[in-house]
Structures are given as structure tokens and as C-alpha cells.
Amino acid sequence: MADKNNSRRVESSIKRTSFLGHLGLIAGVFQELEVDKLIDEKLPKERDHKVPHSVCILAMVLNGLGFIGQRLYLFPDYFRTISIGRLFGDSVTREDLNQYAIGETLDRIVKYGPTKLFTEITLHIMNRLPIPVHCLHADTTSVSVYGDYEDEETEYIDITFGIPKNGRWDLKQFVLSLIVNQHGIPLFMNTHSGNASDKSTILEAIKSLKSALRPESKVYYVADSSFYTDNNIKNIGKSFWISRVPATITEAKELLNANLNLKTLKSDERYSFYQTFVDYGGVKQKWVLLLSHKMKEKKEVTLRRKLEKELEKAEKSLKKLAGDDFFCEEDALKAAEKWIADFPSVLFEKVDLKTIKKREAGKKGRPLKNEKLKTYYKIDGVIKVNDAFVLKEMEKWDFSFLQVMISVFLLKRC
């Protein structure tokens, strides 16, 4: 009997136990910065649900930061062990945070415009907190979705096939563009159709955020090579920006293949640099080419290992080729030429033909006296590393290294 009473007291204690954890900090900041007031001003209630949209939005944020991500109909269950009164006020119960209230809030956000609301909240917070905007990073990602989505066209975006960044070519998707500051704080967000191009979405995001920031703000916009197009450079306007110039551009190819006089970087001797001014897209720009010596050494070690494996593979293949019989010298030489073409990393140091005499095909045992034997030819060759190929590969690796790793170009204000 005593055990049952103890068990009931424990169960009762568990039912009464609630926590806040990091969720209390989020709710406190949400209210301290008066984000709730801004949301209710922009999204006034239009239906009879009890809680305002600001409470539903805060509930969704807390749900996401609770590492749960519950479905809408499970929202009340998520807040079962959480102190609702401390987070939202004593007048709010977890039953108020049902799928209908949350769904209505999502509909109102779509109607008002998710990007517009996000930007207004961001600017509202920036007016109250010293959030730096000196260096803003713009990029996009793709979000794959499951389901057929047959003829699914919304008023805003199309969920369709595009170029997936997670490799899921079998799934339809939509694209998300995001701009964050140098500390990773998101300042702008927008969604696009699944087949939208980064070349246009990144420029669109930058121009949208530019129009919202104070004109006197000195901002550097950072984006990858998908931003660097003739059209984007012409249309971004007077701005500071940093990007990587694609090596497919003629001017970049010439620079990467030129014999440049690189200077050692004073602040870090592991790097060398070269800078020049060019005029591309009608905008005068400073291009800065950086070379990492440590990375170059790693590339050279990788190349040497690759060549050693290729040489070992070639020697085994040549040994197998040397066991083949050929009916004439011409056939043997053609086979040798064809073989060496498959292994450009090696050369024949010498190649000879050996002749052997055998009985005709199908006959076994020792030849009979005065039996006519057939003459066959075998390849007898010695290979070595093709120095010209190695040099060409080194140049190619250097070019690839410059292209992928260090052709980060700084562009000045136009």
C-alpha cells in the first residue's frame, strides 16, 4: 500500500513538473525587444481564435528551438511539460495553441508576405540592438520536398525540379536565399521557385536588403562566383562587394596562366598575392590573387602519390601485355602504341620485340623432328615516368588550385 502511495506521489510530481530552459531566454528577448507588439500591429487578428498571432509565432519559434519540430496537431503535446504561463502569460493555455490557431497564423503570414514580415522584424530589432552590418554574406540553398506536387503552382513560388545542392535530383524543391552578417545573424530571407537561378536570386536579395538599410551604412556584400556576372555587376549599383571571379572568364584565364610576380603577405608568410585593376562589365575592379604555399605543397604530395599508383598499375599491365603473342611485328608495335596511349603518365624507356617459335595453335607437347614451327612476336619494354606529363599535370593542378581555392577577388566601390 505504501509503495502505491509513493508511486502516485511520484506520478503527481512528474505531472506538476515543468521547465523553461533556453526557451525562457528566447521568450524574454522576444518580449523585451517588443517583437510581439510589432507582429500584432502588422498581423491583427481577423478570426475568433483566442491567442494573437504574436503568441502563435513565438510558439512556433520555441517549438523549432526545442529540437522537436512537432507537427501542427501535436503542438499542445509539445507544451505539455513546459510552463505556458511563464512563456506566454497566465491567460494562455496549451490547448489554445492548437493546429487551427497555428494554421491561421501561417495563412496570415503568407497573405502579408513572409519576406516583408521577416525584414520588418529584422529592422525593428536593429533599431534596438547594435547589430553590425559591415560585412554581409549572401547565398542560397535548395530545400527538397517529398510528394508529387502535380501542377502545384502557388501564387508566389513553384515547387519543381531544379539543381539540388543536396544531390537529390529525384525530388522537387524550392530555393531559399539568405543574407547574414559577419556573425551569422540572418538579416534577409526569401523563397524562390525550385528552378530559380542563383545568378538572379542573389542579386535580388542584395538589392532588397540594400533598399531597407540606411543609405549611409558602409556595407560589403560577399557572395560566391554565381553572383559574378556582367548583368549583376551592372545592376547592383554603387556598392562595395567581394566575390570570386569564375575562371571561365577570359581575363581570369589569362591572369591564372600568366607568369606573375607574387609578393609575400606580410601578415602571414604562408600566402603570396598579386593584385591588379581590370574593367569588367563597365565597372573598374581590383582583383587580388592569393596563393597558399601550404595548400600547394599538399597538392604536390597528392599528385606524387597519384603518379606512383599509376606507375605501379602500368607496370602490372605491361607485364600482362608482355605475355601476349603476336603474329607479326606490325601487330606487336601497334599494340604497344595503343597500350602506351592508355598510360600517359609513363613513357617507354626502351621497347624491343622478341621472337619465339611455337607449334601451331592446338598442338601440345614437344615439337616433332623436322616439324615446321610458327614464329610469334612478344613485346619486351621498359617504362619510366613521363616528365613532360608530370610538368603539365603540375601546371594543371596549380591552375585548378588557383581557380578553386585562391582566386578570391576583391572589388572596389564603383
TrEMBL record:
Please give the coiled-coil regions recorded for this protein.
Answer: 297-324
| UniProt cross-references to InterPro entries, sorted A to Z | DUF4277 (IPR025457), IS1634_transpos (IPR047654)
**UniProt KW keywords:** Coiled coil, Membrane, Transmembrane, Transmembrane helix
Which residues belong to any copy of the DUF4277 domain?
18-122
- Highest taxon of source: Archaea
Instruction: Tell me where the transmembrane regions lie.
Output: 55-74
Matching NCBIfam families: transpos_IS1634
PANTHER family in the record, alphabetically?
A: PTHR34614, TRANSPOSASE IS4-LIKE DOMAIN-CONTAINING PROTEIN
| Protein name as it appears in the record | Mobile element protein
What organism is recorded for this protein?
A: Methanosarcina vacuolata Z-761
